[in-house]
Amino acid sequence: MPDNKECITQPTAIDLLANLPAPYGLNTDADKALFDSAMQQADLWHQAHNPTYAQLCTAQSHPVIPVGLFKTLDLATPTGDQGQWLNSSGTGDKGKTQVFFDATSMARIQQGMVQIFIENGLVSPVPARFLLLSPDPSTGDHAGYATAFLKFTACAPVQECVFAVQANGQLDTKLAWDTLQRWANEPVPVYIFGLTVFFEHLCLSQPESFRLKAPVRGLTGGGWKGMTQRLDRQQIISGLKQCLQAPLVDIRDIYGMTEHPLHYISCQEGHFHIPAYSQFTIIDADGQSAKADRPGLIQLENPFFASLPSHRLLTQDLGSWGEHCPCGQSRRFLRYIGRATTPEGTCAAEAI
Fold first, then answer.
1. Residue 55, SS3?
2. Nearest to 349, CA basis, from 99, 203, 145, 174
3. What's the rounded Cα separation, in Å, for the pair 165 and 132?
4. pTM of the model
């Protein structure tokens, strides 16, 4: 990975990957070759600039790093670039991970996320209103999900943004419903972003049904499996549709983590179709690639981070993979099953 001046005149394989014109198209040989080249470039960069990662490579070529290792070791790669620090949720046994997002990596990530949002129909050219079932990140040291959901508001010009989670981490359901009722009579698009468990709280506290003139799109993170207490996903979505009486209520799941550059959005079937920027593998109990529909640990690959050698990341999440999704997307898909660790080690569990 050359320095920034070289990148301006000669795009690297990673830059070319980040700017693929059709990342959700067929898995062409050219795309696969570009991905492999970008991953090799990431390897060489981190080996040259990160002595700890270079040591890992002497023991094993192309090391896959467990996500928990980033919570116990300082594995950051110096970039000499400006950027910002973001925290993971910090709800696991080993606390928060601080990740530095350098400006070069951030530009690639933003390019990829724009395409992911466009593919899933979440980009609006007209101003929209956002109800965030999360705290305002500017009010204190909140879990990483608060910053993530705020960043997602870039999918449309923000006319108004309301944070419905108090400083103590509790959802203010009255504020949330009062806000939606206040917006009801205007056809301005509405987005609702928040943790799964807060969507459940919202559904359980719903008032009498009312008609919302605007379409409602939403993203929920924190995992559906085992996080809610009384309602499953279908009950939550059906309850919100019945209460809001909106022309559209489209609530999708989102999957990602601070240590991995991108977040992924589910299709209408609840499956995650990973774009050509990334690859995933399901690792079975024997450490091998699992067969279709067989559960295992999710391994994610993406070369966008210059500041963290997490381009081959073994998560603590269980999943499986499949093909021929009913949604019509040709790419194979990832199913999220749940945490391999205890449910208490999640930001969603802390909110219960």
1. helix
2. 145
3. 8
4. 0.88
